[in-house]
Write a structure and sequence with these properties.
With 96 residues, the protein is an all-beta fold. It is 0% helix and 58% strand. It contains no helices and 7 strands. Strands 3-2-1-4-5 form a 5-stranded antiparallel β-sheet, with no helix packed on it. The protein has a two-stranded antiparallel ribbon with strand order 6-7. A hairpin with a 2-residue loop joins β2 and β3. It is globular.
Amino acid sequence: MMTDTRIQGKIIKISKSGWGFISSKEIEFTRIFFHWTSLRQDSVPFLELRTGMPVEFIALQIPGKGWRAVHVRVMEKVKMESTNDEPETTVSALPE
């Protein structure tokens, strides 16, 4: 099963061997595998990835193997800006 829908999640494990796992509320109770080659070129380099980083990806279900993430892109974290003593939340992603 493949969808062109981008899913959001966060990195839950990174291996120095070049792979990791992502969790997502959209695919519950599942660790979604990704390989360093699935990381988009315009994203953060693999060696700079950290647990907890928010990501966006396309999910593939591989028969007999489970879920895989492709076209993985790290998203910027939510920024809090203060204007007139009231916090304003903005969310943005790295350019495509």
